[in-house]
Design a protein that fits this description.
about 375 residues, globular, alpha+beta
Length: about 375
């Protein structure tokens, strides 16, 4: 930090973006100074501060009617605070700060037009573009309800269509067995795997679970999901019970970091990534185990609602992709079995009796 000789209490510093800025502090709370060094607005703000009439901290960034001011109000609103405390709120804020406020914060809210949003969106890669649109929609609904905007500029705007992908890698049975062979029951790594595999929860929930969440008798866990707020009671099945009892756990959480403290969700993800590498599974991750848990339930014939009861998903669409994959496999097996008849049956105009029965049953179900 460099002190300035021309203006009392002024110092120079680099912000988190690497940009040089100025602040003034003589006694008590300091404040940032707007504009370029020595500019009229810089001098006016400095003079007001040293003469005992300082501007409110950050006032230069929150001039009424600007996008800066809109964002300050939004971040303190029930709408924003009502978002999921974990990734959703964090991601919305990071997206708006980086893509909207950084270059447009000084502009008037009235300049937030449909064409402006489209221009911001079209500069980005598909995933980032859709993230921006989600955050902007939420912000603009808030602005319209508060009378800051007359019309929501995001209405009718469509997300960018993404190429089909399987997303995060889902663990296979062979990969699970390979991890288990490397990390035996009684190790923290094995307990981490078992908690995620048998409970199907997010990292943000796994890192806070502990013995205080066990119901009397230790047959189940009762807790509230961090992201959705859903209250879940999940059974502790025998393999998980064995793993918990065989492992040295923390006072408040089953899993602790190297310093004897509970993990953060991000810290746990990084730590578990290293444990996967130790098992020579570079393609595997903590999130992939949550997908594996849902997939295994679907493969076992669990319904969408049964899977949701375990994982805590709140919408059907999130879970249906697991059951679709499982149903596809079962239907493919049934279809392949139909081909097991003789060639005469396969290529004649008359289906085999087995095929006819299956078709008749399908029609009855439709009726």
């Amino acid at each position: 930090m460099r002190r300035d000789r021309n203006y009392q209490g002024v110092s120079k510093f680099k912000d988190r973006h690497g940009t040089w800025r100025w602040r003034v502090r003589v006694k008590g709370k300091g404040t940032s100074l707007p504009g370029e060094y020595g500019s009229p607005e810089f001098v006016a703000a400095w003079s007001a501060y040293v003469n005992g009439t300082p501007n409110e901290l950050g006032a230069a960034r929150t001039e009424p009617g600007t996008i800066n001011a809109l964002l300050v109000g939004y971040y303190n609103s029930p709408e924003f605070r009502g978002l999921a405390e974990g990734s959703t709120r964090k991601n919305y804020r990071a997206t708006l700060e980086r893509l909207l406020r950084a270059k447009n914060g000084h502009k008037r809210v009235a300049e937030l037009t449909r064409q402006g949003v489209i221009s911001l969106r079209d500069r980005l890669e598909p995933h980032a573009s859709n993230n921006l649109l989600r955050a902007m929609r939420h912000l603009c609904r808030y602005a319209v309800e508060r009378g800051k905007l007359k019309v929501d500029p995001t209405l009718g705007l469509k997300k960018v269509k993404l190429g089909k992908t399987d997303g995060v890698h889902t663990w296979t049975l062979d990969e699970i067995e390979k991890f288990e062979a490397r990390h035996k029951v009684g190790t923290r790594a094995r307990l981490a795997l078992d908690l995620m595999l048998y409970l199907g929860q997010r990292r943000s929930d796994i890192v806070v679970l502990g013995r205080q969440h066990e119901r009397p008798g230790g047959a189940s866990l009762l807790f509230r999901q961090k992201k959705t707020g859903a209250r879940l009671e999940l059974p502790i099945i025998a393999p998980l019970r064995k793993s918990i009892d065989a492992t040295k756990t923390g006072a408040l959480t089953y899993l602790e970091n190297a310093y004897g403290r509970p993990f953060t969700a991000a810290g746990f993800g990084n730590w578990f990534r290293d444990r996967c590498d130790e098992a020579d599974l570079p393609q595997c991750s903590a999130h992939g185990l949550r997908k594996a848990a849902a997939t295994r339930l679907a493969d076992a014939g669990a319904s969408v609602h049964q899977i949701m009861a375990i994982t805590g998903h709140v919408t059907l669409s999130e879970v249906e992709r697991y059951t679709r994959a499982a149903n596809q496999q079962q239907l493919a097996k049934s279809a392949a079995a139909m081909l097991g008849g003789s060639k005469e049956e396969q290529f004649s105009g008359n289906p085999s009796p087995r095929f006819a029965r299956n078709a008749a049953n399908a029609l009855k179900r439709k009726e």
